[in-house]
């Protein structure tokens, strides 16, 4: 396959002319849309540029190298949008896809429930047909940015008598209606971007089932595949930048000369390089059509999440007692790499590094716990008996 060097040069030139750190989000999104960079891998007939896999990789790499954000709404651009393109009806595509591209609507994901996290198929939220609508009752949790979303793509049980994986449907539901209550969950750093969402007689259109009634499990696996496979060659970059800051921190605190600290820094650097090489392997497998998602997805999730948690532990060890001193801005909204904009508390001004440390244990939980990922590898890859 031809390497997209001419295309890469085009992207670099556009970024030089258009990207400035600190540019207002609305202005930046408008420039992205006008240039066709939002969802550029989507088919031309649906508003994308029809980029090849290698062109999409080049685009992501050049944006990452410039430090420029690519997405207007990650849940819409990367998760539900491609899912609608893969499974949706023409009517669903005509209604939702242009609005996603233009940034007119925002989304959240309604999968996890208090009793259905890692065992997602045990979900209890129900949707019952009522004329031209579905009536939804249930409780979702850890729903990121639900307080700002216009729509939620959620899983609900539509056939309580079917086996648990087969009686689930994938619904598109308006958030701004009676019957939907959002309660932010305050985290350790004071941010409340995770939410609980309660559905009590909420309604959505009968035709807004993606992929057909009772086929939601298969559709959801497609969405999760998009979630875990969008940054194969760029995902390591934020960890590299973060570690570079921690190395400078070690130099400034005088701990860089400590043999144990140096050894730990070198170990984390090596693990991040392994992330990079595994990303290239994933890309090669994708281009050859040999990608083994059953193995690569869980292994990558285990590796990056546990590596990041170890790196954040190391950062706090380097700071020592100073790590207990809150050095951030009171109630400031700050961009934390990998976690987005975090809105802190007036009485708990954690720094960006401290916020990343406080949030890092959740990396091994969200998107499938490390324990569950190991079980998947053991059973589906190694062929070991079910536990």
From TrEMBL:
One Pfam family named in its UniProt record: Acyl-CoA_dh_M
Keyword entries, A-Z: FAD, Flavoprotein, Oxidoreductase
InterPro entries linked: Acyl-CoA_Oxase/DH_mid-dom (IPR006091), Acyl-CoA_Oxase/DH_mid-dom_sf (IPR046373), AcylCo_DH-like_C (IPR036250), AcylCo_DH/oxidase_C (IPR009075), AcylCoA_DH/ox_N (IPR013786), AcylCoA_DH/ox_N_sf (IPR037069), AcylCoA_DH/oxidase_NM_dom_sf (IPR009100), Mycobact_Acyl-CoA_DH (IPR052161)
Organism per entry: Nonomuraea purpurea
Gene3D superfamilies: Acyl-CoA dehydrogenase/oxidase, N-terminal domain (1.10.540.10), Butyryl-CoA Dehydrogenase, subunit A, domain 2 (2.40.110.10), Butyryl-CoA Dehydrogenase, subunit A, domain 3 (1.20.140.10)
Ranges where the Acyl-CoA dehydrogenase/oxidase N-terminal domain occurs: 5-104
Annotated family: Belongs to the acyl-CoA dehydrogenase family.
Location of the Acyl-CoA dehydrogenase/oxidase C-terminal domain: 214-382
Limits of the Acyl-CoA oxidase/dehydrogenase middle domain: 108-200
Protein known as: Acyl-CoA dehydrogenase family protein
Cofactor(s) the protein requires to work: FAD
